[in-house]
Amino acid sequence: MLTVGLLVSLDSPSPHVMDRLKAHPAMTVGEVTDRWLPVAVEADDDESCREYHDWIAAQPGVAFIDVVHVNFEETDADSNPSISP
Amino acid sequence: MIQRREFNKLAALAAASAVAQARAQQSSPGAKLATNDEITWDKAPCRFCGTGCHVRVGVKNGRVVAIEGDQLAEVNKGLLCVKGYHVGLALYGKDRLTQPLLRRNGVLEPISWEEAIETIAQRIQAAPEQFAIYGSGQWTIPEGYAANKFIKGGLSSNHIDPNARICMASAVTGFLSVYGVDEPAGCYDDLDKCDVLIMWGNNMAEMHPVLFSRVIDRRTRGEKVTLIDIGTRRTRTTDFSDHYLEFRPHSDLAIMNGIAHLLIKQNAFDAKFVDKFCNFRQSPKDPNATPTAPLLGDAMSFDDYKAALEPYTPEHVEKLSGVTAEKIRMLADLFANKDLRITSTWCMGFNQHSRGTNANRLCHGIHLLSGHFGRPGDAPTSLTGQPSACGTAREVGTMCHFLPGGRLIANEHDRHEAEKIWNVPEGRISPEIGHHTVLMWEKFCTPADKGGDIQTLWVQVTNPGQSLPNLHKLFKAKAGQPDKFLIVSDVYRTATTELADLVLPSAMWVEKNGMYGNSERRTQQWFRMVKPPGEARDDAWQMIAVARRLHDLGHPGMKDKDGRFLFSLKNDKGEEVPVWEWPRYYDMNVDKALFEEYRLFSRYKHKDLAPYDEYVKARGLRWPVVQQPDGAWRETKFRFSEFDDPYVKKGAEIQFYHSVTKDDKALIWFAPAEKAAEEPDAEFPFWLCTGRVLEHWHTGSMTRRIPQLHAAMPHSYVEMHPEDAREHGFANGESIVVKTRRGELKLPVWIDGRGHPPRGSLFIPFFDERLMCNDITLGDIDPISKEPDYKKCAATVARATAAP
Question: How far is the C-alpha of B406 from the C-alpha of B283, rounded, in Å?
Answer without folding.
Answer: 22
